[in-house]
Automatic annotation (TrEMBL):
PANTHER family (UniProt xref): METHIONINE AMINOPEPTIDASE, METHIONINE AMINOPEPTIDASE 1D, MITOCHONDRIAL
The enzyme's E.C. designation: 3.4.11.18
One GO molecular-function entry: initiator methionyl aminopeptidase activity
Upper classification of the organism: Bacteria, Pseudomonadati, Pseudomonadota, Candidatus Lambdaproteobacteria
Cofactor binding annotation: Binds 2 divalent metal cations per subunit. Has a high-affinity and a low affinity metal-binding site. The true nature of the physiological cofactor is under debate. The enzyme is active with cobalt, zinc, manganese or divalent iron ions. Most likely, methionine aminopeptidases function as mononuclear Fe(2+)-metalloproteases under physiological conditions, and the catalytically relevant metal-binding site has been assigned to the histidine-containing high-affinity site.
The protein's name in its UniProt record: Methionine aminopeptidase
């Protein structure tokens, strides 16, 4: 049972878990106190069935686009060929590639190879080879709704550290998703991601964040992949947002190349990323691009 007065931060939690209070129920208790003091629950974001159905369809298409890419990927293809596959597949399904001409971005997807963190621009000069780590990020606009997802692919046989960074990035996304609760906080997500990345000796890129999405590509809330649990914006039912952690094998520092888009690790070590678009309901979270 919960005592009337809270334990100190470093005392054992009241729930009997054996964990320190600060590691266990402290944040839940703070949240409960906040809700008690202001018993009016924040209003969920009203969403029509039409909006939800529109997001489901565009996210289904974004997912199908990645599946199509995955089936065709092999050593020897150029990233420009991947761009063409994505471009044509998207148009063939009645949608528009969201990245094309987005703030001047010139292509229909992003292809980020090895030390490229994100926003790699497809090019006929870039040939994918055995041993590479390639992220393909696709976003489509279907009937006005945006669906955004990416995956990192291991090309043929890869070095153990290449497989490891991809695995850690995937786990970071999954843990980030698991941290999403209606009426929880955006900071819970980054906290879960950062803890796992650091425990694995990897670092978390801070310059790029997940984002609200819907009838616009990028909107509120920003979703950092680092932070403190219980901090940041309240997560409300009706929200749509992405989680898309970029996890580095070396240091977190990133720089942008002269094309003004391509973000690379400063130390030249590998970076991996996975992204899903999510919907928060009254009872939980739905991964729309899974
Ligand atoms: N799809 C990316 C994201 O996850 C954004 C790419 S914007 C571009 O938010 F202009 F670089 F393509
Ligand atoms: Co995104
Ligand atoms: Co994306």
């Amino acid at each position: 049972m919960k005592p009337d007065s809270a334990p100190n931060r470093n005392d054992p939690c009241w729930c009997g878990s054996g964990e320190k209070y600060k590691k266990c129920h402290l944040n839940y208790d703070i949240e409960e106190q906040l809700l008690n003091r202001n018993p009016q629950r924040p209003q969920p974001i009203p969403r029509t069935q039409e909006f939800l159905a529109g997001m489901r369809s565009s996210c289904d298409l974004a997912k199908a686009t990645l599946t199509m890419v995955e089936q065709r990927l092999r050593p020897g293809v150029t990233t420009e060929e991947i761009n063409r596959w994505v471009h044509e597949f998207t148009l063939d399904h009645g949608a528009i590639p969201a990245t094309l001409n987005y703030h001047g971005y010139p292509k229909s997807c992003c292809t980020s190879l090895n030390e490229v963190v994100c926003h790699g621009i497809p090019s006929p000069e870039v040939v994918v080879k055995e041993g590479d780590l390639l992220n393909v990020d696709v976003t489509c606009i279907l009937n006005g709704y945006f669906g955004d997802t990416n995956k990192s692919y291991l090309i043929g046989e890869v070095a153990p550290e290449t497989a490891r960074i991809a695995q850690v990035a995937k786990e970071c996304l999954d843990l980030g998703i698991a941290a999403v609760r209606p009426y929880g906080h955006i900071g819970d997500i980054g906290f879960a991601i950062q803890n796992h990345a650091h425990a694995q000796g990897c670092s978390v890129v801070e310059q790029f964040v997940g984002h609200g999405i819907g009838k616009k590509f990028h909107e509120e809330p920003q979703v950092p992949h680092f932070g403190r649990s219980g901090s940041g914006t309240l997560i409300l039912p009706g929200m749509f947002f992405t989680i898309e952690p970029m996890i580095n094998l070396g240091r977190k520092a990133v720089k942008i190349l002269g094309d003004n888009w391509t973000a690379v690790t400063v130390d030249g070590k590998l970076s991996a990323q996975y992204e899903h678009t999510l919907y928060v309901s009254e009872t939980g979270v739905e991964v729309l691009t899974a």
